Structure formats: C-alpha cells, structure tokens
Amino acid sequence: MSDQPGPKGLTHTAVMDWLTRFAATVRSVEPELTALDQKAGDGDFGANLVTGMDGVRRALETLVAGAGSGGNGRRGPDVPLDAAARVFLDDVGGTSGPLFGLLFQELADALGMAADPPGTAALALGTAAGAAAIQRVGEAEVGDKTMVDALVPAARALASCEPTADPAHALHVAAVAAHRGARSTTGLRARRGRASYTGDHARGVPDPGALAVALLFASAHAELTSLDRLPAS
After folding, report:
1. Distance CA 85, CA 92 (A)
2. Which of 20, 50, 71, 155 has a Cα at 20 to 30 A from 104?
3. Measuring CA to CA, which residue among 82, 140, 123, 142 is closest to residue 217?
C-alpha cells in the first residue's frame, strides 16, 4: 500500500492524485470484485470498473499533457472529477457505470461551485447530491443491497464533520462509514440491481458496488491492494 498522504486541501493536484490512486486500487482489487459479482450478480462489475477507471486515467493524462503544453484550461479541483464523470456516463457499460458517473458529476459540480479552496463542506454537499441522484435513477434505498448502502452512510458521515474540517480526515471518516455500510449488505437479500435476480443466492456476499464506493473514499488517502485494506476505524 502506498504511504502517500491524502489531500490536505481539495486542489486540482490533490483530486488528480486521488483519482489516480483509485484507478490503481480498482485494478488491484478487480479479481476480488469479480469473484463477488459472480456470486451476487452477472460477473462483469470488476471488469467494467477497471475499464472506466482506465479511461479516467487516460483522461487525466490528457489534462496533464494539456497543462504541460501551455494549455489555458482551468485547473480547478472539479476538472478531474468532471472528466471522470464524462468517461463513466459516456463510455462505461453495465448498470453501475452511469451511477458512478452521476456521483463524479455531482462531486464536480459541488467543488466547482464552492468558495476557493473547496473543502469538507463541498465534499459533503457533492456526496449527498450524488447519493440522491443515484437513488432517483436506481430507485434504491438503504437495505436494498446496492452501492446506496455505502454511499448514504458516507454522505451522512461527511455531513457530520465540521465544514472546516481537514478534507483528508473527512474522507477517512467517509471511507470507514462506507466500508461499514458495504459490509452490512452481506446478509441482505438484494431488492435492486442485477443481484436482485439471484434471490437468496446473493446472501452471504457483500455488494461489490458498495465496496467500490468504500474503495473510492479510501483511495483519497492511499492506494489499496486488497479489500482487506479497507479501513475499519
């Protein structure tokens, strides 16, 4: 696991690094996510997430190249998240691709509209808006065994932090809450998403999408090499 520190402020560079670590994390844990999805879904979640984050990594490299060549593009913290949103909304298949796209887009919008520099308050606003958008589209509630089971607790955890709290601390708190939410799906019977078609066969398996949400927040601090690296406290 990398020992790189998480973002001290939500700068363009900090968000670029966060998404780059998430891309590396996704590639590392893809076999675990795929194995879980083969039991609880149709088995393509891990591959779709890797495809999406590989696309995001290429989009981030394009941003860096543009800056290095003297491009006049904005360098706000919302720019990398907006690029990630476009990749997932336009290019990633499966049920989860557009949903992650919505989350990235709401985070981008919140950071883009916040006072400079955006911090924990903007993270809380964007995560809550992302959760609400995903719930509107997917019609899922907490307890339905979907990514919502991790995202809603993460949003609540961020909202409980002081608005002026260090974003690195707030993101860790969100990662812990998301991980607990993801693990809580293990004993549930899926009522939404592809896993709902498997009936009781998905019992005993945590929802891969919920785990991916936890991985996203945890990657703000460090690259993870296994689901076992998700923070518990």
Report:
1. 10
2. 71
3. 123
Cα–Cα–Cα angle for 167, 171, 172, rounded to 5 degrees: 120
Under DSSP, the state recorded for 43 is S
Q: Among candidates 180, 231, 140, 187, which has minimal Cα distance to 40?
A: 187
pLDDT at 193: 56
pLDDT score of 11 more than 60: yes
Using CA of residue 190, residue 45, residue 102, residue 232, what is the dihedral sign? positive
Two structure tokens written together for 60: 């981030």
What DSSP state is assigned to residue 193? S
Q: Which two tokens stand for residue 11?
A: 């700068």
Per-residue DSSP letter, 225: S
The Cα 174–Cα 133 span in angstroms is 18
In terms of residues, how long is the chain? 233
**What pLDDT score was predicted for residue 58?**
97
Return the amino acid letter for 21: R
For 16, 18, 80, 113, the CA distances from 166, given in Å and listed in that order, are 18, 15, 20, 19
Q: Is 111 helix (H, G, I), strand (E, B) or coil?
A: helix
Could you report the per-residue pLDDT of 30-73, keeping only the tens digit for each? 999 999 998 877 788 999 999 999 999 999 999 998 775 445 56
